[in-house]
Amino acid sequence: MANRDRLSGLDASFLHLERAGAHMHVASCMTFAGAPPSYDELVRQTESRLHLVPRYRQRLADVPLQQGRPVWVDDPHFNIRYHVRHTALPEPGGQAELRSLAGRVFSQRLDRSKPLWEIWLVECMEGDQFALLAKTHHALVDGVSGVDIVTVIFDTRPDPAPVPEPDQPWIPRPVPSGAQLLSDALRERATVPAEIVRGARALARGPRQVAGRVAHDVSALSAQVAGTRGVPPSPFNRRIGPHRRFAWVEGDLGQFKAIKNELGGTVNDVVLASVSLALGDYLRAHGHGTDELTLTAMVPVSVRADVERGALGNRVAAMYAPLPVHETDPLRTLRAISESMAGIKASGQAVGAQVLTQLTDFAPPTILSQAARLASRQLAFNLVVTNVPGPQFSLYSLGRRLQAIYPMVPLAANMGLGIAIMSYDGAINFGLVADYDIVPDLDDLAGGLAGAMDELAAAAGVEPAALRAPSEVGRGGPPMGFPLPRSRPYGRGRRHARQPG
Question: In angstroms, rounded to a whole number, what is the distance separating the alpha carbons of residues 10 and 317?
């Protein structure tokens, strides 16, 4: 029987990709209404919930001679105060200072000798608010399961009932020796394939079903390969360094739904159209030709079953979405993306990605490592655009309401820009992360993205959310984060969110 604490092939691939300036942690900047809790309060509150997520007290143990993928083991030296940290913003404590701090924190690689997560309490923000910066390695959690864990760690009411205490105090299990890790890995290698063979023999009793599944998987894999062809070079695709810039744009989920209701497609199509318009204007403003240029975005999709929600580890596949950055008309951009995405979904491309990630579970670790590194050198897509559905109700921490979540997706080698989108309580926020040197004017790109949202809203006859007061975004309550500062105008005279005050 396979060790449930052993990394899957997909989870392990994120470790192999972490090189040459790439940090494979997902992250978020979260703002809260009210005075910040004390550091000790946050430590106690976090520690009281750790029994709900036991993996957060575990670290990775490598198998000698790379004869198996790493396993999760209890950390005998676990110290909550290493993982929950405390800092403050310099004056004036506005969103510019918060973005700068987030970029620096997100630039730091997580220590693999310890549990792979951190939470930073950020004080001295202007107004009656504070922030939390959270980082978790991608080998531990994907976007969708991460959302579920957030709903466990946080509360759904400002005055929640006490969390039930664990049946017994946490005592770390002994760390297995190298010989034991090697023995377990070799035993699995000898026994787990036998289970697969027996399953294959059982399936062979129904040859028609087997033939149908093989044909389906071959077709899906062909679609997956076809989706990565013809990726053009771009100024975003250069060797990255370790340093990051981080910015965000706030949106209204209701506005995005209204746009898709008027113009067709899905909310995700509207998201991709906004990104495409903004990237096109940014490239042209920087002297890059976009005639007939179509960039490729890797769009992760969840294949996690409902019964797996709340489980850690990765259950994701990928689709490769064309972004027609040569197109300047918002209606034609949305129509082209909607038609392309409908065709991609019908082709089974996402299923093909799932088949490939399942195959990595049976690849020897040395081959898996080399394959992941080789893939990171290939230009299979220009950027990642990930859209994660978050909880559509208010969350609280120590009685303070979570106002906004700005997500971050990691950058792989040769990938200088990534865009993560997350909906929460009626809002939909974009987190933009970039290599510090490849995109030095990330705020300009963020401003263009806000303008692209307005253009799509205008084309649909929907009121632009960027022109509303921040408190009108979401379902009420305190203001949802900060409005975006005015950016240098470019493109076709788009409107940008106004300067605070």
Answer: 10
Which residue is associated with the tokens 């060790």?
A: 3
14-20's contacts with Cβ under 8 Å and 24+ in sequence apart are 14/137, 14/138, 14/139, 14/314, 15/60, 15/70, 15/112, 15/139, 16/368, 16/369, 16/372, 16/373, 17/372, 17/373, 17/376, 17/412, 17/413, 18/109, 19/373, 19/376, 19/413, 20/239, 20/240, 20/413
**312-354: pLDDT as tens digits:** 443 455 788 999 999 999 999 999 999 998 877 665 544 444 4
The distance from CA 180 to its chain's CA centroid, rounded to whole angstroms, is 35
Q: Note if the bond before 300 is cis, omega within 30 degrees.
A: no
178-203 burial, b if ≥16 CB within 10 A, otherwise e? eeebbbbbeebeeeeeeeeeeeeeee
Res 287: pLDDT: 95
- Residues of the chain with pLDDT > 90, as a percent, come to 51
Question: Following DSSP, what letter does each residue of 84-124 receive, concatenated?
Answer: EEEEEPPTT--HHHHHHHHHHHHTSPPPTTS-SEEEEEEE-
- Separation between Cα atoms, residue 133 and residue 31, nearest integer Å: 9
Q: Determine how many CB atoms are found less than 10 A away from the CB of residue 105.
A: 21
**pLDDT the model gives residue 200:** 44
Contacts of 133 (CB under 8 A, 6+ apart): 27, 28, 29, 30, 101, 102, 105, 106, 118, 119, 120, 122
Look at residue 214 in the predicted model and tell me its pLDDT: 40
The answer to whether 87 and 123 have CB atoms below 8 angstroms apart is yes
pLDDT in tens, 257-268: 999 999 999 999
pLDDT greater than 90 at residue 2: no
Catalytic residues, by residue number, are 138
SS3 398: coil
Q: Identify whether the C-beta of residue 394 lies closer than 8 Å to the C-beta of residue 425.
A: yes
The mean per-residue pLDDT over the stretch 365-370 comes to 43
Strands lying side by side in the sheet with 417-424: 244-252, 427-435, 417-424, 383-389, 295-302, 316-323
Separation of alpha carbons 480 and 482, rounded Å: 7
H helices present in 205-241, as ranges: 207-226
